[in-house]
Amino acid sequence: MPTVPGADPAVVGPYLARVLDDPGWLGCTVEVIAGGRSNLTYTVTGASGSLVLRRPPLRAVRPTAHDVAREHRVLSALAGTAVPVPEPVHLCTDPEVLGAPFYLMRRVDGVIARGSLPAGYADSAAERVAMTHALVDVLAELHAVDPEAVGLAGFGRPDGYLARQLRRWQGEWAALRDADRRAVDALAAELARGLPAAPSGPVVHGDYRLDNVVLDPADPGRVSAVLDWEMSTLGDPLADLGLLIVYWQQGRPPDGPVVTPSVTRLAGFPTGQQVVERYAARTGRDVSALPWYVGFGFFKLAVVVAGIVARHRAGAMADNTDDGLTAVIEPLAESGRAALAGS
């Protein structure tokens, strides 16, 4: 049985057989799921079925950003709401098992739309519009969840969310700065000067974008599950919308910085402005301050990329995830400054 870094099947199988009281997990196989750039994700397959395991990086540079127990808690809370999430199965908080806490959830089969779409899937403009509307509508449903009603009243401190978020990401940047990157510093200063005074409180995802959802394999206009909840908390819903627009490539200049290719660049997808209009219509929220949130989204993404580069250099990831990302850190910051300026 081959060893898998971070989730050795010789450990995972017997552990699952014991805690789930199911010997069908003995002799399981474990494979790394490609695409994850932060918490590590694996498929665990055995005679009893298939599960997904999530754990922090092998050597986390900033461990506070990889709290898998929070992911498990929010999945458990949102199960049964209008927000589709994978079913959580088990949380292990004992770091002696795999070297860090981890959790398992049911695998949701479907399409994850990253750089391309499967042949014959969502070929028409109507299907791509339906996919976009489904993505936005699920975000609206998330922001309509009453945290107290689902047991998430203490999931975060919504008051002062934006100020804390900005301080947090400024702190992350201070810890990760690897060179004199004036554009990133300038964007951080501009964001601090223009910090909105906005109401907050709903559950926010923290990294909401098309490739963090599973689409129904038979219906591109249906989201089967929302994934990657490691940054979720209680906060300002426009932060989710702003980051979604950062990743949306339809209508964006083709020479802009791209961290990962997105199918939203393909013909037939609505523009970022149409995404914003759909969200505003579904929620009734005032989105006039959105340029600040888009700028903040670019700042966060620049810092996230710096973290990926740092983890890659430290050998903390299961595969090579650098892919030349160092070169996009400053262009991302420049895009953030342009968003703040309204250009």
Give a description of the structure.
With 343 residues, the protein is an alpha+beta fold. It has 2 domains: 9-106, Phosphorylase Kinase, domain 1; 125-340, Aminoglycoside 3'-phosphotransferase, Chain: A, domain 2, CATH 3.90.1200. Helix content is 39%, strand content 13%. It is built from 10 helices and 9 strands. It has helices spanning 9-19, 68-78, 95-98, 125-144, 161-176, 182-193, 237-247, 272-283, 290-313, 329-340; strands at residues 29-32, 40-46, 49-55, 88-92, 102-106, 203-204, 213-216, 219-226, 233-234. The strands form 3 sheets. A 5-stranded antiparallel beta sheet has the order 1-2-3-5-4, with helices on both faces. A two-stranded antiparallel sheet has the order 6-9. Strand 2 and strand 3 form a beta hairpin. It is globular and about 60 Å long. The model has no long low-confidence stretch (mean pLDDT 90).
Give the arrangement of secondary structure elements:
Blueprint lengths: L8 H11 L9 E4 L7 E7 L2 E7 L12 H11 L9 E5 L2 H4 L3 E5 L18 H20 L16 H16 L5 H12 L9 E2 L8 E4 L2 E8 L6 E2 L2 H11 L24 H12 L6 H24 L15 H12 L3
Antiparallel strand pairs: 1-2, 2-3, 3-5, 4-5, 6-9, 7-8
Keywords, please?
single chain; 343 residues; alpha+beta; Aminoglycoside 3'-phosphotransferase, Chain: A, domain 2; five-stranded antiparallel beta sheet; 10 helices; 39% helix; 13% strand
